[in-house]
Design a protein that fits this description.
The protein has 209 residues and is mostly helical. The protein folds into 2 domains: 62 residues, Arc Repressor Mutant, subunit A (Orthogonal Bundle); 140 residues, Orthogonal Bundle (Tetracycline Repressor, domain 2), CATH 1.10.357. 81% of the residues lie in helices and 0% in strands. The chain has 9 helices and no strands.
């Protein structure tokens, strides 16, 4: 083995351990956000739960907002993957009703899988350090939905497609957050209401196209 390969062999386990530690910190932060909320979240609390010193924690993240930024970035990345999967489907062959059901169910899965989502989303909206990701999240969904609405012949003008994308985002984002924080029975009712509202929005737009 050459000297370079020996160095690489030593570096890889170190990198894996570092990544594992970083992931652990993110997981712990998500748990704590759910338990105490973002106002009472501290790096001391995260370090204690993760079983590391505060100094070690700072090696990965300089403050709690950096941890939350990474957590929010991870969630937005999952949303991006979900939207890409939807766009890869044969949307043109789907009815508007089927598209609404599939898109909302897929979005719900991303929201459900993120622990501590409500305080994280609130932080994305209200904390200056995370505001950038809130805007990225919104633009991501608006632009993706506008492209898919065009393929469904909902509208053709870019301004109208973006307007509908914004409406769809605001309706789904608000009510999916409600769904994931409700009881199973109430959540199912709210999800059904959300699909009805979203379908009504798109069918009305399509009838005027």
């Amino acid at each position: 083995m050459t000297r370079l390969r020996k160095t690489e062999a030593r570096t890889q386990p170190v990198q894996k351990r570092a990544q594992a530690r970083r992931n652990q910190i993110l997981e712990v932060t998500a748990e704590l956000l759910e338990e105490v909320g973002q106002d009472d979240l501290t790096t001391i609390l995260v370090a204690k739960r993760a079983g590391v010193s505060v100094g070690t924690l700072y090696h990965y993240f300089p403050n709690k907002y950096a941890i939350m930024y990474a957590l929010a970035e991870q969630w937005v990345g999952e949303m991006d993957l979900a939207l890409q999967a939807l766009e890869a489907e044969d949307i043109e062959s789907q009815s508007t009703k089927k598209f609404v059901e599939r898109s909302i169910d897929r979005m719900l899965l991303v929201y459900t899988n993120q622990q501590g989502l409500l305080p994280l989303v609130q932080a994305m909206y209200g904390v200056p350090e995370l505001k950038e990701l809130d805007e990225i999240h919104d633009d991501l969904i608006i632009n993706a939905m506008a492209r898919m609405f065009e393929r469904l012949d909902i509208a053709s003008k870019e301004t109208e497609l973006k307007r509908l994308g914004r409406c769809y985002l605001e309706i789904t984002h608000a009510l999916v957050l409600v769904v994931v924080n409700q009881s199973k029975e109430d959540g199912e009712k709210t999800l059904s209401d959300l699909k009805f509202l979203s379908l009504s929005l798109l069918e009305r737009a399509k009838s005027q196209f």
